[in-house]
Write a structure and sequence with these properties.
alpha+beta, four-stranded mixed sheet, BirA Bifunctional Protein, domain 2, disordered N terminus, 3 domains, 13 helices, single chain
Length: 373
Amino acid sequence: MNQNNAKSASAVSDALCAMYGAYGYKQYNMSKFEAYDLYVRNKDFLISDSVITFTDTNGQLMALKPDVTLSIVKNNRDEPGCVQRLYYQENVYRISKGTHCFRELPQTGLECMGTIDMFCLFDVIRLACLSLRAVSDDCVLDLSHLTPVRVVFEKLQLAKHVQDMMLTCIGEKNLHELRRLCVDNAVDETAAKQLETLVSCSGEAQTVLPKLRQTFDDPASKAAFSQLEEILCELQKVGLSDMIRLDFSVISDMKYYNGFVFKGFVQGVPNSVLSGGQYDPLMRRMGRHDGAIGFAVYFDELARLLDDDTIYDLDTLLLYDDSTPWQAVEQILRDLRNGGVSVGAQRTLPAQLRCRRVLKLENGEVTTVYENA
């Protein structure tokens, strides 16, 4: 992104919330903490299993929330035949990849829970695309479907730890190690080829889907590919298909996810800044019968790209000396405030004060000491 066109994190987050509201999503506000047991029982769902805990006055162990989705699922009820569309703008508390210390991290996202149909799936994936576009025009959404790999694993009936290693290889596109695991575990040639295809096959739909259909001929996978085509067709109608890349190495924990999963990337940030998918298994695990799909935008990852709107304590600082009448200082400050900016006055520039522009009033004239674009 051109630095001159950079946006602040809070401005992007506010824009996303306004967009979600316009698409029929209702804002959901939640407590900063939940019972620690919620996260212990679902630690594999969390980005990090390190959680800040404290003991409540009633003796219950509580935790500052490291995740929003778990809280939303826990604190809502099934509504048969209906769809709950919720968005949030919250802070989560977990270890930052950059500092390796606990930080309060801003996160914005949405959840769609209920009787999930093709429109719901399309709507959420469309909003994921639009969310990336709100950050940068130079972006891509990697879209996948978990059904093909689930079909292979159900057929092979491998041990859980072997499946986990294979999923890691798929996610890392480690074809060499995946082939070794297939040999070591006597995976038949057809299944091995299917797993290798998931690793190596990515790109535009017109190239990827024919290869997948040649490799997977089971009814469930065929239905998944048809769903992908339907979604992509509608995304093309709204001008978003050009930012979609089919990538079946996008894998999420299948104890929690099913169906569509996706990750979003923007130029200038090495890690995904958006992640989401269908999580019906998580709903079942937490006693819910509804289906669900959602995503989150991670502003800790975007920090290196977006300007922090708190970078300046003041827009403009006016420096003056003892010879300057205070009334003259007040008049200039009043004129500057009329321009809609935050202003202040000091005799000298404080070491810790961050200002976009510093002016100096001397001998009745105002000059610019420095000004940032």
